[in-house]
Structure formats: C-alpha cells, structure tokens
C-alpha cells in the first residue's frame, strides 16, 4: 500500500511518506422538577484559532492517491481551567464546530464522527481514551470556496467534571476503495495551542502536531461551545446505613417558612455506593401512602422501610426536587430553607440521617423573546440572493408556556414557503432536484406546516408560531403534543426564482 500524508493544495502524491502498517462532582443527571426548567448559563465559544472564520487551502490528510483517504482523525485538546473564559466547576459541551476545506465523494456526502474523549494523558493513547460523548454528521461535498463550517450538537449536552480536559476528535472514515477524500478546514493565521492529526496508515499512531510533521501552517479549525453546570433546584439527603436509627425522618424542604419554595414535585431514591436508582415517585405516579410520606409530618423513613426495597444497612441517597417561585433568587431559597430549620443539625436529629447536603442553585426563568434551540446543517446552499437562508427559534422551551416562534430569514423576496418539523435529524442533499439540503429525519412523525404557507415579502423573511399541543405529523391522528424532554427539529422550505426551491438550515429544540 502506498500511503502518504498529503496537503490538499499540492498535486504531489508523496509530500511526506510514512511506513504503512495496520469526575469531583459526578455527572449523573438529576431530573429537574416540572414545570420549571434548567436555564443554561451563558454559553462560551472556546477556540484556539486566531481566526476561526476563514478557511484557506493547504490542509493535510493521510491518503492513498488516487484511491481516497485512509482513516484520519483531527484533534484539539481543551482544558477548562486555561480556556477563555476559564471554568472551574462542572461544565457541559453543547456543540463542536469544525471547518471543511474539501470533501469529494461518490455518494455526495461524508459521514464524520465527532468524539469527545477524556483528555487525561493526551496525546499518548488518545485514540483509545474513553469516549465521553459522540455524534455524527453528514457533510456534503465541499470546495474551499464554500467556506463551510459544520456544527455538531450534543443532546443532551456532554457533561464533564470540574477540571476535566477534553480531547475533541474529528474522525473521517476510510475513503477507499470508492475514492472519497476529506480535508479538515484550516488556515495559517495562528493558534494558541497546537492542532493534531493521527492516521495509523501513515504511521501516526498518536495525535501529532501538524508542525511536527512538516506542516507548520496547518492550524485546524475546531471550536467548542460550552456552558457551566446547568442550575436547577434539588436537595440531596444522604442516609448513613438506612434503618440503623429509629425515629421519624423529616423530608427536606417541606417545613420551610417563606414564599420562595412552593412545593415538592418528586423524590428519587438511589444507592449511595453506585448511584443506581432504586425507585422514583412523584405526585402523579405515587400511591397515596407514598405521597403522604413526603408531606410535613409524614414518616418517609417508615414508608421506605415498609417497601422492602431497601435492606437494612444499605446506604441510600434521596433527592427531593422542589419547586420555587419563578422570581426567587438562590439567596431567597437559602433563606426559606434556613427559616424552616433545614440544616445539618436537623439531619442528625431526624433519625437515620447523619448528613445533609443541600445544593441550591438559581431558579430558572425564560424571557419571552429569548432565542432558543441549537442550529445545525449550517450553512445550507446559497439561494438566488447569494446568501444561505437561516432559521431561528424564539420564545420559551417550557412546554407549559406554549410560546415558540420559528423565523426564516435571508430568503429570496416575495417567495412562498412553509416550515417542516421532525423529532429526528437527517441529511438528504438536493431532494427532488432542490438546490438545498433537507436536514430532518423522515418517518411517520415528519410534519409539514403546509396549511400555514407564508410569503417572504420584500424583506425576505417569514415566521409562524408553533402550537406545541398540535404539531403536525404524517401519521394518524395528524398531530401530536410535544412533551417535556422531547427534542424537535425545524426547517423551512421555500420557492426560489427560476422555478427552483431551497431550504434554510435547521434548528433543534430540547423542550422542558
């Protein structure tokens, strides 16, 4: 096999030849109490590129010319403590954006895998490091003139522990024998930390900086969007050896004196040693006796002992999800709990409870005009204006609010169009001869708002409100109500001049 690490801009087959051969606080998610939601903190884009918006010809891949690329992985390592801004606590990665210099395939697209791997020990053994989260995206055939940037979202966001480094891997598959090629987007504008490549068939077993391989001007464009730990309202109580002490257990947050806390919505019982959920009950699913045990004066410890699900001597953790006034601040919540006698001393006196760990975070709020959702499949193909049409969503991700508006912009003026929705994502290039790409999944839940056809008018934009209680679907009964926890994706189709048509990019919304 004749394989080489080859720069895209060069016609030389062998530019560089290689011998060929074959978490601190845990990230366990705690359910949030409806009807309140997690409100993400402000998102930050972490980039190690001086210019992360311009793709210049000259990238590198390991390939067997002219038969296609071998397996190639492109890397960047991010340390939350040294990023701008730095993050010291638990954090979430929402998405990864990477540039594409060129993609040439027989099928019209390349399936790229984006892995977030544990960065401990990087770069040694990085290809075998634990995968924290992974997602795939189909990248349409691309030329450098397209200046294509692809954003891949993680739903739910990928959770990382405080101080945990993450190695971002953009993995392009073997393009042989079909003759497929892929080159990561890069430029020579400078970088604050090196970017890397690994390719077994070129002898690069571990990620190696491009500069160390003789390509100092290849600075791969790989950014991540992240935010600090989402904040919601829970109170965690840790039993020390369940049943070892007699007495009535005082349920956390139920004897408060103040208006900040309005109720308790759920209780989750877990094993303390491994986090396994033993059972969950809330006001809608619990028996009368179970729910009564949560009320002030209720004997929760006695109820759990009678359930037979928790043997004596087992250490358990109980998470109470409490609801608050939407306007309450974290200090309001602390004050209300302390006024009600919720504290470590009460835990010791409650019987069976030797430690109380109270996690108090900012209550959620959503402004009616907030931009919501995460765009993907961006940019779509340009339309007759020379621009790529875009979709945005605004309102609230709270299902109970039923307040979502989707807007298509940069559409050719005075053209008709409508919105499409689906709970799944997909990628179909130029469906039915369209100039653009369809980025939703098909199936019986694919729905069209063709009963709400809009005109873009002179400004090239149109929008509709989305009724979350009646989202159209292709199967009977013809519509469906969105539920908390559902993810739905939206895209707009529109006519263009010359009897053609096109699409916006797409937006994905996780509802709460």
Class by alpha and beta content:
mainly beta
Number of helices: 4
> Could you give a short account of the major beta sheet?
6 strands, antiparallel
How far apart are the termini?
Answer: 53 Å
Unreliably modeled segments: 8-41, 230-258, 337-369
Percent of residues in helices: under 10%
Task: Give the number of domains.
Answer: 3
The Cα radius of gyration reads 27 Å
Arithmetic mean pLDDT: 73
DSSP strand tally: 35
Q: What portion of residues belong to β-strands?
A: 35-45%
Strand order in the largest sheet: 8-7-10-5-13-14
Shape: globular
Which helices and strands appear, and what pairs or packs with what?
Layout: E1 4-7, E2 16-17, E3 44-46, E4 60-63, E5 72-78, E6 91-104, E7 109-118, E8 131-140, E9 148-160, E10 166-172, E11 181-184, E12 186-187, E13 196-199, E14 204-209, E15 219-220, E16 222-228, E17 234-239, E18 261-271, E19 277-282, H1 288-294, H2 300-307, E20 316-324, H3 330-339, H4 344-349, E21 353-359, E22 371-372, E23 374-376, E24 390-395, E25 404-409, E26 416-422, E27 425-429, E28 437-440, E29 447-448, E30 454-455, E31 462-466, E32 471-472, E33 479-480, E34 487-496, E35 500-510
Antiparallel strand pairs: 1-2, 1-4, 3-16, 5-10, 5-13, 6-9, 6-11, 6-16, 7-8, 7-10, 12-15, 13-14, 17-20, 17-21, 18-19, 18-20, 22-24, 23-35, 24-25, 25-31, 26-29, 26-30, 26-34, 27-28, 32-33, 34-35
Helix pairs in contact: 1-2
